[in-house]
Amino acid sequence: MNGSDVTELRAFVAVAERRSFARAATALGIVPSTISQTIKSLENRVGVRLFNRTTRRVSLTDAGELLLARARPALMELNAAIHDLSLFREKPTGTLRLNVSSIAARIVLAPVLKEFLVSYPGIHLDVTVDDEESDIVGGRFDAGIRVGYKVARGMRTLRVSRPSRLLAVASPDYLARHPMPNAPRDLRDHSCIRYRSSGKPMNWVFEKGKSKQEIAVNGPLTVDSVELTVQAALDGIGICYMIEDFVGRHIEAGALIPILKDWSPPVHSYYLYYSERGQLPVPLKMLIAFFKQAVPE
Length: 297
Fold this sequence. Notes:
Largest sheet: 5 strands, mixed
Number of strands: 16
Strand order of the largest sheet: 4-3-5-16-6
């Protein structure tokens, strides 16, 4: 597509949307004779009539309707692309409101906060840490970050973390006082720290080959804080079930020991998500571009 192609398509869409050569010419800032000649040139080039013209009315032919259906979204995408390029020569400013889970705050957002804010000093991040399945649109947030299966339908998503499995872990002190579980069912005889999500304790899921087991564990402590869940495990209160990346440093230090490693737990990734409706705010566009560069495929 060359420059004249774009000019002809812009003129065609302008006339088709307004059903008037005069109004289209005014909108494009050109004289009616020029837009009339442009449409005639386009029709000659494609070999079909695009408009039915009378002294009082302009309407689309079937061919014109087909071209409008394809040309209008293409021009909108082209305009959006040009607008996005302009952002690189401007200094993005504004507030970006995010709603993120506590795990996402630790393993996704915290490692990149400084680099992002240094790269875009005009952007102010307003972050709410929330482990409920909140409505980001109703809460007037620009975007959220959550594990994939908790993202509401109808949202656009971008993966912003590497895949990480859920692990059952316990402290050496706890395992010194209790036998090591050999199968998921053995967890029913252990003190497990239950994490409550969206009002109910989360079951623990394990997989081995074609076998899958979902265990409703019991124990002396139920909490809705991932930080408290991990701390309780570190203190030897019981076994907890947590994203591996969240407890990885404790495993490396020997403070927590993985349990049932041959029962491979589900693997999850975290996603930035946002509504498909409306124009994206510039700060969110910058965050999307930043994560696309920062997160490996």
